[in-house]
Design a protein that fits this description.
This protein has 7 helices and 2 strands, in the order E-E-H-H-H-H-H-H-H. By secondary structure, it is mainly alpha-helical. The chain has a two-stranded antiparallel ribbon. Helix 4 (110-132) runs antiparallel to helix 6.
Amino acid sequence: MEETGALFSIGPLEITGSVVTTWAIIAVLTVISILATRKMKDVPGPLQTVAELAVGKLMGYFSGILGEKATRKYFPLLATFFIFIIVSNYSGILPGAGHLKGFSVPTASLSVTAALAIVGFFSIHTLGIRERGFKEYMLSFLKPVALLLPLTLIEQVVRPFSLALRLYGNMFGEEMVTENLYEIFPILVPLVMQVLSLLFCLIQALVFTMLLSIYISEAIETEE
């Protein structure tokens, strides 16, 4: 569940449990990435095998939206979003999540999901300008009809809010439901909810990155 109190401050910045957990997840993913790619072998070990399998599955998933060529170019960005979100989501299944001080599910915090959406928003338009040029990209907002420009601009502004609120709302709601069910039915129902959470967390990561890849596809006008 989202934490509102700060654990400590760094100058004017207040550090909450969700921030600490985010730092921990980034550190763990960095170490795993280094270990998985440090000594690549023709006959991979267990960690390299899992990494290659994950990359292959994600490549296939995003290729169905962006096309193979664009996916290869933007895969690091999209895969980073997906891996961070799904690991953050799954951190809520660990014992003590949302209860231990300094241990809060990042994606159940609006500040974290908003940050992800803002990075995605600027990535979309940066890639659009880089691929099509500033002038052509700006003119694309006048299509199909110039009179629709206000609605088109509103849509662009609403997108990051939608991404942030959808992920936050679903994860925060899932946390609330699981906690309340645990108080009412402390034996069996929470276990069932934890199993369902495995699928739910995966779906939320897929939806966020799917929408992001669709927006990127529209920005760069990917054609295969």
